[in-house]
Amino acid sequence: MSINTEYLERCIQTTEQAYKLINQEQEGSINYEMYRNALVKGFEMTLELSGKLLRKKLTPYFASKKAVDALTFKDLFRNAYKHSLIDENTVERWLKYRDNRNNTAHDYGKEFAEETLVLIKDFISDAKNLKSVIEND
C-alpha cells in the first residue's frame, strides 16, 4: 500500500524554512514574530498530518480500520514502536511534541511559542524520518 506523503513533505519544508529564517532575525522584531507564527503553525500541521498518515501505515497491523481509528494520537506512536517502525526514544519525543501541541489549544502566548522553538530542530528531523517510515513498504 502506497501512502501519499507529498503534503507532509511540503509541511516539513515550510516548517524547516521558517526555522531557518527565524534564526536570521532579531528576537522581538516583526519578522521574528512572523516566522515564529509560521513555525508554530507548521509544527501543528506537520504533527497532525504525521498522525493521520501513521494511522494509515498501521492499518495492516490491525484486524480492522475501525480498530486503528479508535487509537489516540499517542497510542499510534506506541503501536509504531510495538511494530518496530520507530524506536522507543523516538516515541518519547513524539509524545512530547503532542503534549506541546495540546498546550496550543490553551496558550497561544509567547511562552508557548518559545517552548515550541526549543523542540523544532529535533521535530523536523523526526518528521523527516517518520515520512520515510510511512513511505517504506
Detail the topology: elements first, then pairings.
Blueprint: H1 6-22, H2 30-58, H3 65-69, H4 73-82, H5 88-104, H6 110-135
Helix pairs in contact: 1-2, 1-6, 2-4, 2-6, 4-5, 5-6
Largest sheet: none
Structural class: mainly alpha
Overall pLDDT level:
92
Which stretches of 5+ consecutive residues score pLDDT under 50? none
Q: What's the helix-strand series?
A: HHHHHH
CATH H-level superfamily title? Nucleotidyltransferases  domain 2
Write down the oligomeric state. single chain
CATH class: Mainly Alpha
Q: Under CATH, the topology is which?
A: Four Helix Bundle (Hemerythrin (Met), subunit A)
Termini distance? 7 Å
* Percentage of residues assigned to helices: over 70%
- Dominant shape: elongated
List the domain count as a whole number: 1
Strand content: under 5%
